[in-house]
Amino acid sequence: MDNSALRRQQLLKDTRRMYDSGGIPAIHPRYRHIYNDLYDEPSAPAAGSFYLRLAIGILCFVCYVWADYKDMTVAGVNSSMIVNQIEQQTDLEEVMETFGAK
User: Structure pTM?
Assistant: First the structure.
């Protein structure tokens, strides 16, 4: 090969290295699975909030059990009031009136 052909190959390699990021191009998240199916690129698992919600739920339950065990009243509410509100049957018409839905 002559000098100009080597230079063109080197420029082509440099250009590919400069513009090829190796990642998924900017595509809408809705179509990312289609791109991954076509080009066999592994996708990173989405980080969820399950463990955070689980921890908050456990914390709320522990606080409820502790307040029930100590017969505490917090902000004018005790554990029996919480149980009464949970057991209360909701009237659909009353809810519709409250929120103004027709």
Answer: 0.39
